[in-house]
Amino acid sequence: MVKTLLFSLFLPSVVFGQSRGSQVNFMTDVLGQKGLLLIIGLIFFIASYRNSVKLFAWIEDQTYGTRDYILQKAELLFIEIRPDHVTYALLFMSTGISILILGASFIVGNYTVGIIFAILSSVVGWKAPRPLMDYLVARRVKVYEGQMVDALNLLSNGLRAGLSVPQSIGMVVEELPAPVSQEFNLILQQTKIGVPLDEAFENLSKRVPTEDNDMFVSAVNILRETGGNLAEVFDTIAGVIRERVRLKQKIDTYIAQGKMQGGIIASMPTLMASYFASVDPNFTEKLSTPIGMVLVGVAMILNILGAFAMWKVIQIKV
């Protein structure tokens, strides 16, 4: 409907648009400037109304959805934060920083650079919170994986000493640092309010979704139902996790070397251009022309694609 309306409105201007060797805007002559703006506004309203459900769902996801996402991740990080504080922080990151940059640029008098940096800061502040929270959760999970071996050894020693599973978990809470102590302490807290131990372990595997954690939780739940030597199973799982951690650390060493090489290669064009521009400004004079700016843009895109390709190559999953 909208496409048909647009076609019917602008077809006469294309057919009757030539008069006395100059382009005549048929729509402006017939409807006037206000009428044309009214028609454009009507088309925009119709398009927005037809896609209102998707539009409002997108707005909700980018506002309240981001806030709820941050609160959910903060709960996994054992960080207590009020929802209104998260809202204020998001508003400051998306609009407050850009307003400060605009104000500083207007004081200095460099409006163009200020507007560009304000737009960039607004986009970054709008999109950065979710990846930042994902990074914090991933870092916590990595620390948790490194502490699993010590936790399993404590559980195994506690069971051999005649303690029950909850008592052995209490030893882990007392002896080991966060995050493994926080996660195991939450298991104890859940059992104290009536949650079955099996369900508490399942909640642990949902909060920390790793292969080692899934294997540990499955072993505990199965052996508690069928019977068996949990201490020996914990020792076996600890050995498997220890070898896997050792392999991951070895791979991280090679990945670090690849990251360094990729970073140097990706930064070489920018560093060389900066060097030549500082030594001889006339050397880069032609880059300020329209063709030069296009070539610089193409080079930057190719450089980003090359850096992304190198990043994907060094990503090794165990």
What does this structure look like?
The protein is extended, with a radius of gyration of 30 Å. Helix 11 runs antiparallel to helix 12. Strands 1-2 form a two-stranded antiparallel ribbon. With 318 residues, it is mostly helical. A hairpin with a 2-residue loop joins strand 1 (18-19) and strand 2 (22-23). The chain has helices at residues 2-15, 26-50, 52-62, 64-76, 83-108, 111-127, 129-160, 165-175, 180-192, 197-207, 211-226, 230-279, 290-313; strands at residues 18-19, 22-23. It folds into four domains: 2-50, no CATH class; 67-127; 145-247, Receptor-associated Protein, CATH 1.20.81; 255-313, no CATH class. The two termini are 53 Å apart.
Task: Give the helices and strands, then pairings.
Elements: H1 2-15, E1 18-19, E2 22-23, H2 26-50, H3 52-62, H4 64-76, H5 83-108, H6 111-127, H7 129-160, H8 165-175, H9 180-192, H10 197-207, H11 211-226, H12 230-279, H13 290-313
Antiparallel strand pairs: 1-2
